[in-house]
Amino acid sequence: MGIIIKSDEEVKKIRSAGLILAKTHELLAHALKPGITTLELDQIAEEFIRSQGAVPSFKGLYGFPASICTSVNEEVVHGIPSKDVKLKDGDIIGIDIGVCLDGLHADGAKTHAIGEVPEETKKLIQVTRESFYKGIQYAKAGHHLYEISAAIQEYVEAHGFSVVRDLVGHGVGRKLHEEPQIPNYKVPGRGPKLQKGMVLAIEPMVNAGSYEVRILSNDTVVTRDGSLSAHYEHTIAITDGEPEILTKL
């Protein structure tokens, strides 16, 4: 199936799912502290999402056992919440959340520092976030998809970090993962022409060291060299003007 153009009504529903997602991120940000387990974070998130009349998009997807992904330090994405993973001062954690409301999905991720972390770690988190905003400067009708990809890569590499190649962003809405795939690095060609009604999950995944990753037996993705990794993602809608971020307060 090709790229699904969403109606105004569908975008409105994804925006509602995105608001729940943003509130979940805010709730978890306040809960983050040394000593909390990633399973406790998952329980907080699931309880809140369901209290809003929505369901966690990730739970059961491809066999994933939890409601959110909690990726700590060298884990890039798909970290599984566990009672045995207790956050400590100096850790970083990427929290990825999917929310489904009335059959429509929103997707978003943020990376947080726990307690005090080195300046270079703060820079990794900041550059990952900023690369998203550099990318969506091109998320406008009439531009092409890979302009977003190139802008993300150029910004990240200008700051001495690397962009993961084996994982990409994606369309989102009727399913959590739809076409098109959205690399965070420049690829040949221009990609599809963007048009109003496209809804995209743009998600830079940035490593402090090499861009290479490996997949553990539980499907968690980690950096191959053990370096730290950060993740930042919003669901956006292409409009007649500036892109609309659907997963923020």
Observed structural traits:
single chain; about 250 residues; alpha+beta; five-stranded antiparallel sheet; four-stranded antiparallel sheet
Sum this structure up briefly.
The protein is 28% helix and 25% strand. By secondary structure, the protein is α+β, with helices and mostly antiparallel strands.
Structural notes for this entry:
The protein has 249 residues and is α+β, with helices and mostly antiparallel strands. Helices cover 28% and strands 25% of the residues. It is built from 4 helices and 15 strands. The chain has helices at 8-31, 38-51, 119-135, 145-158; strands at residues 55-56, 68-72, 75-77, 92-101, 104-113, 162-163, 169-171, 178-182, 199-202, 205-207, 213-215, 221-223, 229-231, 234-237, 244-245. A 5-stranded antiparallel sheet has the order 8-7-9-14-15. Strands 1, 2, 4 and 5 form a 4-stranded antiparallel sheet that branches. A 3-stranded antiparallel sheet has the order 3-12-11, with no helix packed on it. It is globular and about 45 Å long. The chain starts with 7 loop residues before the first helix and ends with a strand.
Instruction: Catalogue the unreliable spans.
Output: none
Q: Describe the strand arrangement of the main beta sheet, using strand numbers.
A: 8-7-9-14-15
Number of strands: 15
List the secondary-structure elements in sequence, H or E: HHEEEEEHHEEEEEEEEEE
Question: What is the CA-atom radius of gyration, in angstroms?
Answer: 17 Å
Note the main sheet. Answer: 5 strands, antiparallel
Percentage of residues in helical conformation: 25-40%
Number of helices: 4
User: Which class of secondary structure composition applies to the elements?
Assistant: alpha+beta
Gross morphology is: globular
- Averaging pLDDT over every residue, what do you get? 98
The amount of beta strand, in percent, is 15-25%
